[in-house]
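Dear Dr. V.,

Thank you for agreeing to look over these. As mentioned in my earlier message, I'm a first-year student in the group and I'm still getting used to reading structure tokens, so any feedback on how I've presented them would be very welcome. I ran two proteins. I've put each sequence directly above its structure. The first is here:
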Amino acid sequence: MNLLSRSEEIMLLTILKLKENAYGVSIREQIRIDSGKTWSFASIYQPLDKLTKKDFVRKLKGEPTPERGGKRKYYYEITQEGRNALLEIKKANESFWSGIPEIAGK
């Protein structure tokens, strides 16, 4: 079993949530909304690069825009391999948590 790191798992889940609007800034903002924590851009792009090399995500070039001074955005989409990895880590997490007694407030 090749488990994902927690940051890789968060990236894949965020890309799924954002659908076709998953690019660096929107991913960072969604993580801030979901976690209440602001991640640095290095914390965003490092796992994205790893996931791209593992073929868990695909990096796609957007069109250049005047708002970005003619630069392109790079969008990310999850591959089937990435979906499979998420299902595997979900199953592993459920297994790790099974049998754990209630921990909240007791």
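The second protein is here, in the same arrangement:
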Amino acid sequence: MKKLDIVYEDKEILVINKETKVLTIATSKEKNHTLYKNASDYVKKAHPKNKVFIVNRLDRDTSGLVVFAKNEEVKKELQEKWNDITTREYIGIVEGTLKGSDTLTSYLKEDKTFRVYSTKDKKGDYAVTKYTSLASNKNYSLLKIEIKTGRKNQIRVQLSDIGHPIIGDKKYGSLKNPIFRLGLHASYLKIHWHGKELIFQARVPKTFSMFVKEIKDYEESRK
């Protein structure tokens, strides 16, 4: 079992900083090399009957904070209220110069090739993404991204829609990959739960180093 980057653990939840290129859960093609399998193996070390249940997911190529519940009741409670009780922020690097801030909204659907796309059809899944530019140069921009909904690929699709795809995201139109991975990281999570405010941070990967000072300033501001 690969060593997990555990951000937080108590009797009810386990929060892990997922690496890029790792699936959150199994697929028909990959069942063993997943974050879920590693987390399950980890808790079973304490007791073979221990279990974990996935609360939120990240795309394979996105790194950052993933929450597991240690019993089904906690999983159900968190998932039912997730959009209302959480603040979820990502750090992203996109192609081109993007300044200021904006809120992107659209309805999302998925085609037969599993590619998500925006549509005006209200039968799609409503998605809301807010971004703020932290820094930019002539080639790239560093964004703080907050999602108000948790739709598959929503950040990647909506930023591509405005002509600024996440770097390394060939699926959604990126032509540049200077960091040799997807430029998206789930960096910050705040949960309002049972009268408490739980705050978790996953340090931005060193591969995002083209914006070292701005990332450091961002991380300091979230403490």
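From my reading of the second output: The longest strand covers residues 125-136. DSSP finds four helices and eleven strands in the chain. Does that match how you would interpret it?

Kind regards,
E.
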